[in-house]
């Protein structure tokens, strides 16, 4: 749980710095279809649909989850690096 909290904080710090439309981080711990407890760290943004922004992200339509435009890739390297830097800073102060 503490690792997930640290990751959530690092993601929030990095996103606030990099994206003016960043709204918040949602953290979920689930044990539903996978036979093990697992966590999700979801980014939320100002541009999200009003009817969905206050609800769990898994309520987005299926097409959204399978659309290539939203797939992780090299275009996210700057964000990954920023999150890694924030994690390093949080670990060094713990």
Write the layout of secondary structure elements.
Elements (H helix, E strand, L loop, with lengths): L1 H17 L3 E9 L7 E8 L16 H5 L10 H17 L1
Antiparallel strand pairs: 1-2
Features of the shown structure:
94 residues; alpha+beta; 3 helices; Diadenosine tetraphosphate hydrolase; HIT-like_sf
Task: Note poorly predicted spans.
Answer: none
Q: Rough shape? A: globular
Could you give the count of β-strands?
2
Q: How large is the count of helical segments?
A: 3
Q: Roughly what percent helix?
A: 40-55%
Order of helices and strands: HEEHH
Structural class: alpha+beta
Biggest sheet strand line-up = 1-2
β content, as a range? 15-25%
InterPro entries: HIT-like_sf
Organism: Streptomyces mordarskii
Protein name: Diadenosine tetraphosphate hydrolase
Summarize it:
This protein is an alpha+beta fold. Helix content is 41%, strand content 18%.
């Amino acid at each position: 749980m503490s690792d997930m909290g640290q990751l959530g904080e690092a993601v929030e710090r990095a996103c606030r710095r990099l994206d003016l439309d960043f709204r918040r981080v949602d953290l979920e711990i689930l044990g539903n279809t996978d036979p093990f407890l697992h966590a999700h760290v979801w980014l939320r943004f100002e541009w999200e649909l009003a009817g969905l922004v206050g609800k769990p992200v898994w309520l987005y339509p299926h097409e959204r989850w399978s659309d290539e435009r939203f797939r992780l890739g090299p275009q996210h390297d700057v964000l990954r690096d920023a999150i890694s830097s924030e994690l390093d800073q949080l670990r060094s102060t713990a």
